[in-house]
Structures are given as structure tokens and as C-alpha cells.
Fold Diaminobutyrate decarboxylase.
Amino acid sequence: MWSIEEFVRAAGVTVEELAAYVAESRRGDVPVLARRPPGELAERLGLAELIAKGGLTAETFRGFLRTYLAEGTRLHHPAYLAHQDAPPDFPAALADFVHGTANNLAAVYEMGAPATTVEIEVLKWMLAKVGFPRGGGVLTGGGSLANLTALLAARARAAPSAWDEGVPGDLVILAPDSAHYSIARAASILGLGRRAMVAVETDELGRIIPERLPDISGKRVMALVASACATGTGLHDDLRAIGEWCRARDVWFHVDAAHGASALLTTGHRHLLDGIELADSVIWDAHKMLAAASLAAAVLVRDERDLDAAFQQEASYLFYGDQGFDLLSRTLECTKGELGLKIFLNLAWRGERGLGEQVSRRYAAAHRFWELAGRRDGFALPYEPESNIVCFRYGDGDQAALRERLMDDGSFYLTSTELGGVRHLRLTVMSPATDDATLESLLDAIEAPHP
């Protein structure tokens, strides 16, 4: 089935088309997204016929790929200002190309010794940055899975017998309503149920008020969850104050730093993570601010024994004897890709300093938008941004309708969220191509009269 000659031709076509796609996207002279309905798109791509008959060749693949890319969302585009997914840097893209060909697996050492070794070294680097000198970690397929894994470790410490006997009814998780939805989802998956989620008091922007953390009588706090930064606003909880509260009460402290942990690589923003070393567990997504392609998320624990206790498994075809460097016992995923390679190649090409500078530039661009919008009438900006996320309103009209108008012709792609029950537009600067001209054009488009 594998033709070396055809692979070389098709790979050449792929590289040419992807290079043209990224260049075209970064110039911003095409729509940032297309919104064709699935049925029409399937017909345009000829999916049914190709599924039924096959027959794609290296030559005809060019047309298919060109259409496929044109119909998608262009994360490299300057007007991509929506979700927290990185426009991947090319070293990370090369890693996915390597994995797609070699398909070595990183969970079992003998299935991919280089893949596992690279992951271990990348994790050591991340652990050092977070401040866990005796910690342990694993890479997973996304932040939601990382949060679940960290809370499994917390459950193992609070209720060691839960794996065999079920979850005790007195366990609770403290978290703000602003926490990522995967925290509440994890509570139900873990068998605690939504009843176990206890909302902590926050300020008007969703940040935990450490002085008002509750005393839960008759319950055991399995974990307290803080954000660095919050998904909706990009604002950070006071990790040091919360961490000291947890230490004094022997409460597991989990920090969801999926987005914000990359600021540890900067000089101007690392203070936002002050106190992260007090955590028992931290998650850090490389596919957000480290410019890796999705997905690559780290679960990091201060004491690696806690991660080893998260799962208890038996499978004679996998677990036998001394497994040495296997990561399988620390993750839900049995078949786990070469996630560490994506992070490593970006580091190897750009260096720690280079990646940190990229983070700083995205944060600076978001702050610049805040400054520019603040100079215009009609814009309401409830806070000064701490990261590359800005929430704002324009006028008193329907903000969701305004967002739809901006997206109708593919000119700009933003998201929205609620603050205090009020809908706001939400801008996230992810693309290196986003500049002042882009931001001014967005503000002009928002202000433009619309029938």
C-alpha cells in the first residue's frame, strides 16, 4: 500500500499548498473563516464519491487540499481573534508530520523510545519552570483531560480506596463559577456529581477572594481549583494567598494554568504566576501559548507519587515486570502520540527566550487593543487585560448580533462571554500577524453603521 514515490509527490504537494495557505492567511487578504453548511461543504469536497470509490492521487490531492484549507478557519490570519488555539509554529507542524508517518507511541517505552524520552525531558523542563523539583508529569490530549487527571490524583490522596470501593459522599471541590467547564465535568466523571462542586466567592470579574474562602463543616475538601488565567477573562487568581490557605488546611491546591503558565517564560508577566509553586497540581497547554498544534497538555504534580497513585490498573498484556520508563500508568490514554516532540521542536528552534517573547508580544497586542478601544466613544472595557484576552462591549445593543455581523463576511472572528450576567465580546490575540492596523480595522468595523 505504501508507495515511496507517491508519498514523496504527495508530501511535496502538501508542503507547497500549506506554505501558500499560511502565507495567504498571514497577509489577511482572504476571509478569516468560511461558514458553509456541512451538506454543501461535503458536496464541494466530493466526500461521498471519494469515500465510495477512492481514487485520489498525488496530483488530484492538490485540488482537494486547496479547497479543504480555503473552507476552514485560518488561525494564522491577523483577524483570528477567537479561541485559545495557537497558529502552530512550523517546527510543531513538522512534529505532527513525523508522528503521522512514524506513529511511535509515547506511553510505552518500547513502542517509541525517542518519543517517550523527549516527553520526559520536556516534562522535566516544565516541572522546573513551575517550581516542582521533585515532581512528576505526563502529557495528555488537551486541558480537559489534564484537569481530570490532576483531580484523579487529588481524589487518590483524599480517598485512596475510591478506585475499588467508590467515592465517599463527603468529598467536595471548591472552585469559582469562572473555572473552566471541564472542572465540573470532571467532578461528575469522578463520581462526585455536581453536588460536590462548591462555588467560592469571587469579585465582580470572577476572581477568587482569598479572604472569603469558606470553611466546609461536615465535608472534606478534595481540591481547591484556581485559574491562571481564567478562560473567559484572561485574569489571574491570587495563587500565593490561595496556596497558603490550602497549605494551612492540608487542602489539595490545583491550578488550571492551561493558558497562562507560558507567561513563566517572560520577564514582564511571570509575576502573574507568583505562588504557583505552592500548588499540588498544575496543568499547562502547549497548544495555546507555546505555538504547538493541538493537542499537547501537561499534567504536573509537586509530588510525583501522587500522579502514580491516580490510576490503578491491571492488564497482563501491558503491565508486567519492571516497565522502567513507561508513562502508561499516569494517563488515561493507552495509545498516546508523540506530544512532547511538538513542544521540543519549538523549543529547539526558538529557544525558551524566543517562546517567551512570543507570549509577551501577544499580551502586548491585547493591551494595545484595550488602549485603542478606550480612546473611542461607546466602548466599555471592564478591566485592564493581564494576558492576551480582552472582554468589552460596544454600545447597549445585542453583542451577540454584533459578533455575527463581524463574522458574516469572514472579516473578523471573535468570541463572546458573560461577565456578571451581561454578554460581552471577547478578543483573544493568538496570531503573530495581528498588528495595530488589524486592531484599528476591527474597531472601525464595530463602529460602522449597520442597517
